[in-house]
Design a protein that fits this description.
- The longest helix is centred in the N-terminal third of the chain and has 13 residues.
- The protein is mainly α.
- It has one domain.
- The termini are far apart.
- The chain is built from five helices and no strands.
Amino acid sequence: MLVAVAPVYIDQAHRFVAGVGPKSLAKISADSGIPVTDLEKFQEDKKALAPEMCVSLWAMLFPDMSFLEANAQMDALKL
């Protein structure tokens, strides 16, 4: 099966994950079901997480937000 995900969602999910600390990664892992080790790899390389996992992560982090709203929120948090 082929999964197509707009790169902007992967970029924004990566930006958020790359900007948080280990305690936040543990919480994201617990909430999303994505192992901490996978999130740590994703911090270093945005290609390290499967596209469908990025979409799941995006939906958890930014529910009901557009790309621009999520971007503004991360700017405000200085991520």
